[in-house]
Amino acid sequence: MNREEKERLERRRRMLARERGEAPPTPPPASKQQPERERPAPERSAPSTLPPKEQGAAAAPAATLRPISPILRRRQRRRRIAVVLVVLIIAAVMAVGSGLLGTSIAMLGDMTDSISLYLNRAGAGWPANTGIRTPTQVEPLAGGFVEMDNEDVAVYSAYGAKIRTIQPGYARPALAVGNTRFVLYNRAGKELTVQSRTRQLYAKSFNNAIMLCEMAQNGTLAVVTESDRYAAEVMVYDASFSGDPFTWKLTSTDGTPIALSFATDNHRFAAATVAARDGQLRTTVRMMNTNSDTAGPFYVADTGSVILKLKWISSSRVLAVFDTYAAIINVSDGTESARYDYGGATLQSVSIGGRSTALLLAVRGGDTLVTLDDSLNQLASVAAGQAKSVSSTATAVYLLTASGVESYGYDGTHNWSRDYGAAPQAVINARETLVFISGTVEILNAPHE
To answer: Which of 64, 139, 145, 274 is deepest in the core (most CB within 10 A)?
Structure first.
């Protein structure tokens, strides 16, 4: 019997066994010469004989298995989140320890105010009616302004929208501005409030009467008060008004502060004090630092000269404007590096725009406008008629007259004249250059604009 006949016989036997229900006989092992197509198929696993519930339980562990890469990614993400939280906690602790937390919170509040005012600018614009017809003080405030008289304080945004009106109820109200906030204080009392553009931030009362307040650009506040034991006391509070203030107690030899100015670092400040010596008043400009317990260098002004304006024009120089001359003082040693004398003229008004200065001097026959550079070199001198005051920006000088505004360049060039038919009360450099006239404020433009 050949090989093919044997295979046919074996197939018949298997078919007969299946028909009878018997187990088919085991086929003989295939020879090595068996063709590839005749090789038996791979053996499959038999179906499970477990009950369905047990089958599900057995399959559960396999179903809960996950690829290892997503698990690792989740673990790495948790680690990163944990690291970020630890860093934030450490940063918060360091901020509290270094006094920066209050400043950061203040900056966040100022940013929130700016966003809110921008989103609510619809319908706002210039001109605007403030209702304050005789202002005693007008100051730029974050692109807008704050204006006050003896009873009311009006706050306007950079978009010409009225934010709010405050009635402090002080006998002699005054204010000082620091970029996005300001302090309202009572020069005849012991109270003050620190205000943002939209709300009151802090209120404080002192044991002695307040003489003067000054605010840095970051909200740091200096308060000068009378003292029972000293000529005066200066207390400097951080922007959050928390913690112990820097305190400077002045003796009668030191004098009484009548002008303060902060540097842009918000720690250093210049203080002009006045004391009586040999029957005459003597003004001294002292350089102070809230990070140091030691008084810095000082400059002694000419005898009898009274300080009118004090301003840092760089990190190393302070401009002091007196009633008889102007001087630039070196912060490092208190020496005078530049000077401009008025030559017997009376200083009627002064304005500092950037690093340049504009002086309105009263002389016989009329007034004179004098402009100076940052080294007090004279740039121009022009007749000013009967001007009332001067205001300036970094690029232009404005003379306020009995009925309008005259615009000049620092080189003395006359730009234009604007007649309002009434006396302007103030010109300020806000987001726009604004002019105030009898309760109305508008953008100051050339007549053809």
So the answer is: 145
**Nearest-angstrom CA–CA distance, 261 and 288:** 10
Distance of alpha carbon 177 from alpha carbon 182, whole angstroms:
4
Q: Phi, psi (5° rounding) for residue 39? A: -70, 140
Burial (CB < 10 A; 0-12, 13-18, 19+), residue 237, is buried
- The secondary structure element, H or E, covering residue 390 is strand 389-392
Structure tokens at 51: 């009950």
Nearest to 408 by CA among 440, 366, 442, 368: 368
DSSP lists the bridge partners of residue 148 as 137, 153
Amino acid at 14: R
pLDDT (0 to 100) of residue 60: 47
The residues, any chain, with a CB within 8 Å of residue 114's CB and separated by 6 or more, are 142, 180
User: Residue 315 carries which side chain, given as an amino acid letter?
Assistant: S
Mean pLDDT, to the nearest integer, of 121-145?
92
All structural domains of the chain, each given as residue ranges with its CATH number in brackets, are 251-341 (2.40.10), 344-449 (2.120.10.30)
How many residues comprise the chain?
449
Per-residue pLDDT for 82 more than 90? no
What's the rounded mean pLDDT across residues 281-292? Answer: 96
- Contact between residue 130 and residue 147 where contact means Cβ atoms under 8 Å apart: yes
The DSSP letter of residue 38 is G
In the chain, the amino acid numbered 328 is: I
Q: Decide if 268 contacts 252 (C-beta within 8 A).
A: no
Pairing of strands 280-289, 246-250: unpaired
β-pair partners for 182: 177, 195
Cβ atoms of residues 232 and 257 within 8 Å? yes
Cβ-proximal residues to 99 (8 Å cutoff; 6+ apart), any chain: 238, 243
pTM over 0.90: no
Amino acid at site 371: T
Rounded Cα–Cα distance for residues 129 and 374 (Å): 37
DSSP class of residue 23 equals P
d(CA 127, CA 436): 10
In the block, tokens 């260098």 appear at 297
Nearest Cα to 266, choosing from 91, 96, 95, 103?
Answer: 103
Instruction: Answer for the pair 284, 302: CB distance below 8 angstroms, yes or no.
Output: no
φ, ψ for residue 237, nearest 5 deg: -105, 145
